Amino acid sequence: MTRDAIRLRQVVRRFGSGDAAVTALHDLTLSFTAGTFTAVMGPSGSGKSTLLHCAAGLDRPTSGSVLLGETDLTALDETRLTLLRRDRIGFVFQSFNLLPTLTAEQNVALPLRLAGRRPSRGEVRAVLSRVGLSDRARHRPQELSGGQQQRVAIARAVISRPEVLFGDEPTGALDSSTGREVLRMLRTLVDDGGQTIVMVTHDPVAAAHADRVVFLADGRLHGTLDTPSASAVAARMTRMEATAC
Ligand SMILES: Nc1ncnc2c1ncn2[C@@H]1O[C@H](COP(=O)(O)OP(=O)(O)OP(=O)(O)O)[C@@H](O)[C@H]1O
C-alpha cells in the first residue's frame, strides 16, 4: 500500500502586491509518495524553488495547505515549524554549505548536536559509510572534492532520518560524472533505505534517476512522467520551452 509523505493542496504563493505582484504557484495540488524519488522540472521562473520551499516549510504559501504525514505545516507557528524542519525534513542545496572549520564527521553530527543530542561516533560513521565516505571522516571540506562535499552534506541531511529529503539542484555545481555518482547515491538511499526524495533539477539525465518527473509551467502542474528516460524528459522540456516562447 502506498502512503503520501507530502501533500500540497490548492497551494498559492504570491509575492509582492498591486501591479508588482507575482503569482509563483497557482492553486497547486500534488502529492509525493513515501519511499519514492521525484524530480521537479520546468522552465526558469516556473516555480520549482518556490514549490520546494513551501513543501519543506522554508516558505509559507499565501493560501492552501502542505501536509507532512498528518501535520499541516501551514498551521504551525514559527517555533514549531523550525523544530519540524530540524527533526523531520532534510535539505541539500547546490552549494554544499558545510562549515569549513569542521571535519566531515563533525559537519554530519552537527544537526543532532544542535538538537541537544550527543551522537556516538559509530552513528556518524554509519551515515558516512552509507554515502561512501568512511575513509574521509577526519577531512575538512577544503580537503574534499565537490562530489565528496555534497555527499557529506547529504549525510548531514539524513542523519536525523528525515521523512523527506529535498534537493535544490544538488548536482548543479558538479561535473557530469561526479553528479552521476551523487545521483546514484541518492537512488540507493531510496531503494535500500526507503527514503523519500524530492529534487529540483534542470538536467534530464539527473531527472532520469527519479521514479517520476513532475513538470511545472507558470506555477501550474504541467503533467508528470513515470520511470522517465533522459531523452523523454528532454523532449518534454523542449516542447514546454517552445510553447512558452
Ligand atoms: N522573493 C520573491 N519575490 C518576488 N518574486 C519572487 C520571489 N521568489 C520567486 N519569485 C518569482 O516567482 C516566480 C517563480 O520563481 P522560482 O524561483 O520558484 O522559479 P524556478 O522555476 O525555481 O526558477 P529557476 O529555474 O530560474 O531557478 C518567478 O517569477 C520569480 O521571479
TrEMBL record:
Sorted UniProt keywords? ATP-binding, Nucleotide-binding, Transport
Keyword Methyltransferase among UniProt keywords: no
One Pfam family, short name = ABC_tran
Q: Which Gene3D superfamilies does this UniProt record tie to the protein?
A: P-loop containing nucleotide triphosphate hydrolases
A GO term for molecular function: ATP binding
All copies of domain ABC transporter, residue ranges:
6-243
Q: What is this protein called?
A: ABC transporter ATP-binding protein
